[in-house]
Amino acid sequence: MDEKKRVVILNPSRLQGAEYARQDWVVNAEEGTKISDVLDPAYWAHTSAQMKPYDRIEVRLETGEWILELLVLSADRNWARVHVLQKHDLVSTEQVAPPAQMHVVKWRGPQHKHCVVRLSDGEILSKDHDTAEIAAQWLRNHEQVTLKT
């Protein structure tokens, strides 16, 4: 006895463009944020009201060490439960400290771009430089002024 092959045809009403069916979010996580922090539903307390199931979130650590791709499983007013789709470990973008060893040029993500950071306390002295070379020039000028005083 021959069994008929079942034919299933997609109803056109079940097909939507991704831009209508879900939202894509990008998070620039602060330095020191751990993946376990991002997976804690409380991490999303101030943003979860905007989310819905099946939204996608790309979390970028501002130091450039990793990127995490997440799927929102559920969300409410002050929490969101997420699932890791992919984790990408990236090469550290930290620059080598100048010989004085008092400051370093670091990439601090799209919020701050290339920054000059004081090594003694981690304070950002200058930020928003488009390239590491421009930040290094700012540092050289800063050190010359500081040495004169």
CATH superfamily of the largest domain: Hypothetical PUA domain-like, domain 1
| Residue-averaged pLDDT | 88
User: Which second-level CATH architecture of the largest domain applies?
Assistant: Beta Barrel
Q: Gap between N and C termini, in Å?
A: 97 Å
Give the proportion of residues in helices: 10-25%
CATH class of the largest domain: Mainly Beta
Question: What report would you give on this structure?
Answer:
The chain is an alpha+beta fold and 149 residues long. The protein folds into two domains: 18-89, Hypothetical PUA domain-like, domain 1 (Ribosomal Protein L25, Chain P, Beta Barrel); 103-148. The chain has four helices and seven strands, in the order αβαββββαββα. The protein has helices spanning 18-21, 35-39, 109-112, 132-148, and strands at residues 24-29, 56-61, 66-76, 79-89, 103-107, 114-118, 124-129. The strands form two sheets. The protein has a four-stranded mixed β-sheet with strand order 1-2-3-4. It has a three-stranded antiparallel β-sheet with strand order 5-6-7.
